[in-house]
Structure formats: structure tokens, C-alpha cells
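2024-03-11 09:14:02 DEBUG pipeline.ingest accepted 1 chain
2024-03-11 09:14:02 DEBUG pipeline.ingest length=105
2024-03-11 09:14:03 DEBUG pipeline.predict start
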Amino acid sequence: MRLSLGLLARIEAKPEHAQDVHDLLTGALSLAEAEDGTLTWFAFRLGPTTFGIFDAFGTDEARRAHLDGEIAQALLGEGARLLAEAPDIRPVDVLAAKLPTTERV
């Protein structure tokens, strides 16, 4: 399946909860791995309190399912406590990608 659709999310933690957001995102890897339609998933840190997620999908149905899935629910459920603002989640089109066949960070 060709990955052609993605989501790019910017997440701003409250300073006192940056480690909690870090832990939530690193712990979410197993949830992303369990989603058949999520072809690739990355959580990353941009600064002391700024985090992000990029994920890619082969179909719009898979992207919508991910938005309704456990990772989004965890972020939204803990958002008021952990986040300085609502996550900025944007749909994107993947134009090109190079991915290793088996690589885990």
C-alpha cells in the first residue's frame, strides 16, 4: 500500500508537564503499531515544551480511524491538564518518502 496521506501535529506542553507529554508520546508507539492503517508514525521533540507527531496512511479511512483512535483520545483526554493549548493537527499529502524496510528507534 502506498502511503499518500498524513497528519502533522504540533503539541505544546505546559512547562511543568513536558516530561508527562514526552512519556505519553513514547508510550503511544505500541498503540500506533497496533493500528493496521497507520503505515508510519513518528513522535518528536522540537524544543523544551514543543512536541510533534507525523504519521502517514494509504487511505483517508485509515487517517480518519487514527484520528478517532486511542492516541488522539489520550491526547484529548489529558489535554486540559498537560497542554498549553489544543494540539494543531493538520492533514497533509505525502508527495514522496524513503523509509527503511525495518527500522525502529
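2024-03-11 09:14:41 DEBUG pipeline.report The chain is about 35% helix and 30% strand.
2024-03-11 09:14:41 DEBUG pipeline.predict end
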